[in-house]
Amino acid sequence: MKIAIIGGTGVYDPRILNNIREQEIATPYGVVRFKSGEYAGKEVAFIPRHGSNHSIPPHLINYRANIWAMKKLGVQNIIATTAVGSLNPAMKPGDFVLIDQFMDFVKNRVTTFYEGGERGVVHVDVTTPYCPSVRTVLADAAKDLAISIHQKGTYVCTEGPRFETPAEITMFAKLGGDVVGMTNVPEVVLAREAEMCYATVSMVTNFAAGISPQPLTHHEVLETMQANTENIKKLIMAGIERLQPDTDCVCKHALSEYGGFTL
Ligand code: HPA
Description:
- By secondary structure, the protein is an alpha/beta fold.
- The chain contains six helices and eleven strands.
- The chain is about 25% helix and about 25% strand.
- Strands 1, 2, 3, 4, 5, 6, 7, 8, 9, 10 and 11 form an eleven-stranded mixed beta sheet that branches.
C-alpha cells in the first residue's frame, strides 16, 4: 500500500474506494484503525483524522501513530484534506487552496518522532514543507477537472479546539497567513520526518472570526464541506490516478543527513 488519504472535517467517507476492508496496525504510539481499498488499480489507505464520526478533537489526534502506521504499511504518498477559515479576501468559502507554507501556533503537541534518547535529535528541513510532486499532481488534477484552486497559501495552525479571536486573526493576517486550521501541524512535519511525500488540499469553509459578519459555528464548517464533497472526492480520485508513488522525490531523502528515517 503506497498511497494514503487523510480526510479532515467533512471527509469521513471511504467509499471512493472499492473492496473496502477494516485494518489495524500497531505503532509505538498506539493502535491505528483505518480502512483500505482500491482505486485505479492502486491500494489506498484511508484515515478520517477526527475518527469516522468526528469524535477526536484536533489537539487529541494521535498524529504520530497515524503517520507511523502509514509508514509501516509502506505508504509513500499522502493526500490530506483540511477545513480552514480564511483570512484572505481572495480565498472565499467553497474555495480550494493548495497550501505551500505553514505557521506553527500549536501549544501542547509533540511535533517530532525524535525526542532524544535512543532515537536521537533531528532538525528536519521544512523549507518546502509540502511535497512539490504531490502538489503538482493535485494542481494538474484540478485543472483537468476544471476545479479552480488557489495554487499557494500559508496555513496558520492553531491549537484549538476553540475558534480564534478576531484579535488573533488580525495578527495572523498581518504575519502573512492566508488560512487558519487546527490540524496540519504536526501532521505535515511528521510526514516529512518519516520521509513521505505529503500534500494538503484545504477547503475554505468560512471567513475567519471578525472577518465573518456572524459568530462561527461548526455547523457552518460542515455545511460548506458537504456542499463541496463531490469536488473533493473528484479531486482525490484524480489525484490517486496520477500519483506515481515509486518515483524518487526530495521528500524521500529528508533525513539523509541522519542516515534516514527508521521505524
Ligand atoms: N478556524 C480554525 N479552524 C477552522 C476554521 C476556522 O475559522 N474553519 C474551519 N476550520
